[in-house]
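Hi F.,

I've been meaning to write this up properly since the lab meeting, where we talked about keeping a consistent format for the predictions we share between groups. The idea is simple: the sequence comes first, exactly as it goes in, then the structure tokens exactly as they come out, then a line or two of notes. No screenshots and no reformatting. I'm using this chain as the first example so we have something concrete to point to.
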Amino acid sequence: MNVVKATRHFEEWLGRRIPLIKKDLRLKHVAMQSAPFPFLRASFYRWAQVWPEVCPELSRAPKVLAVGDLHVENFGTWRDLEGRLVWGVNDFDEAHTLSYANDLVRLAVSAHLAADAGHLPVNRKDICDAILDGYRASLREGGQPFVLGEKHVWLRNLAEGELRDPVVFWKKMDALPTTKEEIPVSAIEAMEHLMPTRDISYRVAHRVAGLGSLGHARYVAIADWHGAKIAREAKSLAPSACCWAAENKSPAEILCQALISRAVRCPDPYLQLRGRWIVRRLSPHCSRIELSQMKTQGVEMRLLYSMGWETANIHVGSRTEVKAVVRHLQRQKPKWLHTSSEAMLSAVLEDWKSWKKRGYI
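Output, unedited:
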């Protein structure tokens, strides 16, 4: 099955589970043609399909509750219960039980593509070494979240770019078009549940964001409260694309909440799964971070090390499998991550070229 046929099959499968926004799907297809990195971000379903074929031994490695769709732009910041700024993985739409190596290889491949695009001026071997060093260190320590207070000052400085400025952020939110369609009652309830009070007047906008979930319904309730803006987002969720790739006929669980609950994490109190909606607070410091927004010069290796560490923070949640993961890691050849990421990178680039040539809009 080529990537065009796989995309059609996947979107038909997805459309039987959640309503899809056709206009946003067309935007996704265009973005997939633009460059390999957006293609990778938008096509986890294809990764899930080819991963066991390209890396069969690694795909059978010890399994953990994994992110699945991990990449270098699947990290962001939020505020914890104490109001502290926290950094880490912030999208778990594709959470699934997978080989621990899946997240590491996909993260490395995304870093390779980011480097090729000029966002990470490091070579491929160094990318893999930094990710693995951080991952192993976090496993040894039992994980530790990234609270950007007195520690990790460099990361806090890195995360606070121009687009995190409240004026810039809320200008973008205000520019979102008010939705004219009927909004599901369940989405309204999900957003209202996270409002500071129940009597706040708000407008609901349609938001186009991300790539992997582009096409899913995504609503943002924007309000003025005590003299400043607040926002809550509800995004529709479906089972992981891994269920489609495995041709799983039985009903599949959405494992987002299970992963968040188990991981070594300083939780976001405003990130919740309510029915089939993932709902969260949006603010200048509660959002995903794009590499293009970050001035990474001089700290690229520290950033990749931290991404590897945070990956282990997620995997440590599968406590009974950690020893098996450590043993498996110890048996691997020195350049295993580099070799496997090169193999998957070749598969991704081959698919991108086919999509660019034959992708439908």
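Notes:
Residues 183 and 219 are 8 Å apart (CA to CA).
The mean pLDDT is 90.

If this format works for you, I'll send the rest the same way.

G.
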